[in-house]
Specification:
Strand order of the largest sheet: 2-1-3-4-5-11
Distance between the termini: 68 Å
Number of strands: 12
Radius of gyration: 23 Å
Number of domains: 3
CATH architecture of the largest domain: 3-Layer(aba) Sandwich
Low-confidence stretches: 1-5, 54-58
CATH topology of the largest domain: Rossmann fold
């Protein structure tokens, strides 16, 4: 990439979906790269240069991104993909995250500041605040909405229901019927959707959900541990635990180990998200497309800024079941019970 071009190999890889190595080979006219691939890479480079401009200066106003959570694991992946994609579109990012975002309400955070658009991630604000933001004609997109949004507010999230249904379906196929659920906060939209997906998978085999096997907690390792302990200390303990996220599942693994239960021989445990700790612990889980959620949020916002008409306002991205070593058929004694 000669001259003063500001587009990087990483930018082109993100634009095309190719690996950085493939893009690099294409730019260097490596003999192993097909002419079609080389053309795609060079076309993508031209598009990106047109967006960013030869000077590398942003073409539009700044976009305000607000995430009221620490940028590690889950939220860090979303925000980093938002930042990278905004850069590809030649736009600046102004970020407020963690405690700084929690101290000030969203509307107060925006007062007196000039932004061309807003992206809010799992907003704790009531729906009325988002409606007010819309009334001010501020283009914005919600990522992973906490509660049900009005029909005409643009949002992107993962397919929570489908992911949870497939996850519990995996356990059902293994033979589990007495499955404990460590769910998220009852007021969260994702909690309702995942619980509904779980119950749908049980209904497929004629099993009714049991309130005695449900615990709703904050999705942390400590709360997951406590909820799992409560379920595993029951006289007739579950043969599997479905946890709201990977962090709660790690807490459940700890509670099982404290009781001398082997995973998966005595107890199957599942998570949701597919964070690094899920891979490290061999956890069966559901992979959320976290980075794609960030990219999609920017894409939707750009369309709003360019005054395109949006037919699909609530976008759900597909999830993927990832089976690892934390799930297996239930113990034979449980099948005989």
């Amino acid at each position: 990439m000669a001259g003063h071009r500001r587009v990087t190999v990483r930018d082109i890889a993100a634009e095309t979906g190719m690996s950085i190595a493939t893009v690099s080979r294409a730019l260097n006219d490596h003999h192993a790269v097909t002419p079609a691939t080389r053309a795609l890479v060079h076309d993508a480079a031209e598009r990106l240069r047109a967006r960013i401009g030869q000077s590398g200066k942003p073409k539009g106003g700044a976009v305000f991104v607000r995430c009221p959570y620490v940028l590690t694991d889950y939220f860090g992946l979303i925000v980093s993909s938002i930042a990278e994609t905004l850069t590809l579109h030649g736009r600046q990012l102004v970020l407020t995250a963690g405690e700084a975002a929690q101290r000030t309400p969203l509307l107060a955070d925006l007062d007196g500041r000039e932004f061309t658009g807003v992206i809010v991630i799992l907003p704790p604000e009531p729906g009325d605040d988002l409606v007010e933001l819309q009334r001010r004609r501020m283009p914005f997109v919600v990522v992973d909405p906490r509660t049900t949004l009005p029909r005409d507010i643009v949002s992107v999230s993962a397919a929570h229901f489908a992911g949870a249904r497939r996850l519990t379906g995996h356990l059902v196929e293994l033979g589990h019927r007495r499955i404990g659920v460590i769910g998220g906060p009852t007021e969260w939209l994702a909690s309702d959707a995942r619980l509904a997906g779980h119950n749908a998978a049980l209904a497929d085999v004629g099993v009714l959900p049991s309130g005695e096997l449900l615990r709703s907690v904050q999705p942390t390792t400590d709360h997951g541990h406590g909820a799992a302990a409560s379920l595993l200390d029951r006289p007739e303990r579950p043969t599997a635990l479905v946890c709201f996220n990977d962090k709660a599942a790690v807490g459940a693994l700890s509670a099982a180990a404290e009781r001398g239960l082997r995973v998966p021989a005595d107890l199957s445990v599942t998570g949701f998200d597919d964070l690094d700790l899920a891979r490290a612990t061999g956890l069966t889980t559901v992979r959320q497309p976290l980075q794609e959620m960030g990219r999609m949020a920017v894409s939707l916002l750009i369309r709003l800024l360019e005054q395109h008409e949006l037919d699909a306002l609530h976008i759900e991205l597909a999830t993927e079941l990832v089976v690892r070593s934390s799930t297996a058929p239930p113990p034979m004694r449980s099948l005989d019970a």
